[in-house]
Design brief:
By secondary structure, this protein is mainly α. It has helices at 2-16, 27-36, 42-54, 60-65, 68-74, 81-99, 103-107, 111-119, 126-135, 146-154, 166-176, 181-197, 215-223.
C-alpha cells in the first residue's frame, strides 16, 4: 500500500505541481478558514475572511470579545453563519480560558493530546481538527474529506471494511506514509485538486492520470 500511495502522490504532483495551501497565512487565519469552510465554497469563505479583516476582527482576542451576533453578520457569506460564529467564539474562548489566549502554546501540544483537545471544542469535528493539525500546527494528522474518500473508493484503495469510517481511511495514510507534515499538507491538497479537475461526482476519465489504476474509470471508458 505504501508504494501505491506514493505512486498516486507522484502522479498528482507531476500533473498539478505544488498546491501551496495556506503558505503565508498564520495559524489564526488557517483556523478561522478551517471552521468557516465547513459546508462552504472557498470563495464564500474568502469573502467572510475579508469582512472580518475589514472590521478589525482579526485576532483570537477580538473574536473572543465581539458579540456573537456581530460576528455572525461578518461571516454570513460562508453559510450557516450563526452556527459558525458560535464555533469561532467557542474556539477563541477555549484558548483564552486555558492558555491565556496564547495560540502558539496551544498548538505546540503533543499531536495526540492536541487532536483530542481540538475534538472536545464545540463545532470541531475530525476533518476540521486535522485541517488545524496539519495547516496551523504543522503536525502530521492526515485530513480525510469527501474528495479523498471518493477517489480512494474509485481506484480500489478504500479500507477493507463494510462501513469504513473516517479513522479507517486515515489509518491507510498513517500506517503507510512517513509522518511528515509537509507531505500530508501537499498530498491532501492534491487529492482535492484532482477531485475538482477530473474525479468529480461525474468523472472525466479520459486523460486522467490515474486511469490505468482505476477500475471504475476503465469501466466507464469501455462502456462509452
Amino acid at each position: 500500500m505504501a508504494a501505491r500511495l506514493m505512486d498516486v502522490y507522484e502522479r498528482f504532483y507531476a500533473v498539478y505541481g505544488p498546491q501551496d495551501w495556506w503558505p503565508g497565512d498564520g495559524p489564526f487565519e488557517v483556523i478561522v478558514g478551517a471552521i468557516l469552510t465547513q459546508s462552504a465554497a472557498w470563495t464564500n469563505v474568502e469573502m467572510a475572511l475579508g469582512k472580518m479583516k475589514g472590521a478589525g476582527c482579526w485576532s483570537l482576542d477580538s473574536v473572543h470579545k465581539i458579540p456573537e451576533e456581530e460576528l455572525a453578520e461578518l461571516v454570513r457569506s460562508s453559510g450557516y453563519f450563526n452556527a459558525k460564529a458560535r464555533k469561532l467564539k467557542a474556539f477563541a474562548a477555549h484558548v483564552a480560558d486555558n492558555y491565556q489566549g496564547d495560540l502558539d502554546v496551544f498548538l505546540a501540544k503533543p499531536l495526540e493530546l492536541l487532536r483530542e483537545e481540538l475534538l472536545s471544542i464545540y463545532g470541531i469535528g475530525e476533518e476540521t481538527a486535522d485541517d488545524i493539525m496539519v495547516y496551523a500546527a504543522n503536525q502530521p494528522s492526515f485530513v480525510i474529506d469527501t474528495y479523498t474518500r471518493r477517489i480512494m473508493d474509485r481506484i480500489g484503495m478504500a479500507p477493507d471494511s463494510p462501513n469504513p469510517q473516517y479513522a479507517d481511511y486515515q489509518a491507510i495514510f498513517h500506517n503507510n506514509l512517513p509522518q511528515e507534515p509537509q507531505l500530508y499538507n501537499e498530498f491532501h491538497a492534491l487529492w482535492d485538486r484532482h477531485a475538482k479537475e477530473a474525479c468529480a461526482k461525474t468523472p472525466v476519465c479520459e486523460g486522467c492520470c490515474l486511469l490505468d489504476i482505476c477500475p471504475m474509470g476503465q469501466g466507464l471508458i469501455s462502456d462509452s
